[in-house]
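Subject: for your reference before the review

Hello V.,

The reviewers asked for a structural picture of the protein, and I figured it would be easier to keep everything in one thread rather than splitting it across files. Below is the amino acid sequence we used in the manuscript, unchanged from the supplementary table.
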Amino acid sequence: MVVQDSMDAPGVPLEPFLHQVGGHLSVLKYDEHTVCKPLISQEQRFYESLPLAMKRFTPQYKGTITVHLRKDSRGHLSLVANPLKESRGPFKVSTESAAVAIWQTLQQTTSGGGALSLPQWQHTQRAHSLRESPATALLRSELHLKAQVPSLVEDVKGNQTERRSFNPWGLHCHQAHLSRLCTEYPENKRHRFLLLENVVSQYKHPCILDLKMGTRQHGDDASEEKKARHMRKCARSTSACLGARICGMQVYQTDKKHFLFKDKYYGRKLSVEGFRQALYQFLHDGTRFRTELLEPIQRQLQALLSVIRSQSSYRFYSSSLLIIYDGQETLQTPHGSNVVKVDIRMIDFAHTTYKGSWNEHTTYDGPDPGYIFGLENLIQILQDIQEGE
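And here is what came back from the structure prediction:
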C-alpha cells in the first residue's frame, strides 16, 4: 500500500519515539498507533511482498510519507511530515507532547546559539504546564535537572544508567539523524519515510528486548571493510555461538516505578551465561520473576520458528527480533484467569534478501540457518530458565 501526501496541508511534527531500544536509524512517532523511519528501498519491497505467514510477526506496513526538515525561530530543528489524505479523517497528533519537550531540551542544552538559559527554559515549561496534561507536565518537570541531558551522551557510549523515565537511545539516534540531514542535504529536500505500526501502543509499560538474530549481520551488498567489521562483532559476541545478540532492552521496575535500560554496547560484551542472566533480568520486574510470561513467549517463538523454516531462500541478515510484554501487573478476568500480553515481532529488513528481490546478489536455497539457530537457542535458554524456576 502506498499512500498519497497532502502537500498543501499543515505539517505533522514527528516526535522521537521514546521506546526505541536499539538500532541506528531514528524511529519517529507519527501518532499513537504509527511510527515512521527513513525509507530504504529493499526494506520497502520486503514489506510490500511479505509472505502471508509472516504478517503476524511483523509490524503492519502502512505505506510511505514525505518528510522535510524544519527550523524554528530559535534554531531548533525538527522533522515534519506531510499529513496523509485518508477517508477516515486526519490522524490525531499532539504538537505539545512529552517527546517533543524532551528533544527540544536536548537541543537547548547541547547546542550553541539560540538556546534558552535554564531559568528561561524553566519559565517556559511552567507556562506550558498550565495547558498540558498532568502526565506531560510531569515528564517536562523531570528535565529541570540540568545534568540529565548531558548524561544521555554518556549512556550511548556504554556507561549504563539504569534510572530514567525515558529511553535515551531513541534521542541519541534522532540527534545523529538530524545532524546527518543538516550536513548532507539541502534544508528544503524532501525525504521518504516508511509508515509502520507502533507495536507497543497497546502497552502501558512496554518492556522490550531487541535481539539481533543470526550468525551473520552483513548484507550481500556490504563492502569488504563493512563485511569484516560485522564479522568481527559477531565473532566476539553471542552472535557466533548463540545466533542472537542483545541490542537493547527496557524493563519496567514496579518497585521503583521506572524503567531499567541496557544498550547494544552492553549486549556485545555478554558471554553465554551473561546472555542467560540478561534474559532472566528482562523477565524480572524488580520485585519478582514474571514466571507467567515464559510459556506464552516460548509458544510464540515456536510458532515463529515454524514460519521461518517454511520460508525458502529468505536470509534475514541484520534484522532484529522484539520480545514485548506489559510491565504492569498481570490482569485477571472475571473468571479468575490471568491475561498475559506478550508479542513477538521481526523488524529491520534493509538487508533481507530472497529469491525475486529486486537487487539480489546471491540466491539462497532453503530457510535461513542462522536465524533458525538463534531461535532454537533462545527457546532452549528460556526452557532452561523455566526448569530452574
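For the response letter, the relevant points are probably these. The chain has twelve helices and 16 strands. The two ends are 46 Å apart (CA to CA).

Happy to draft the paragraph if you're swamped.

O.
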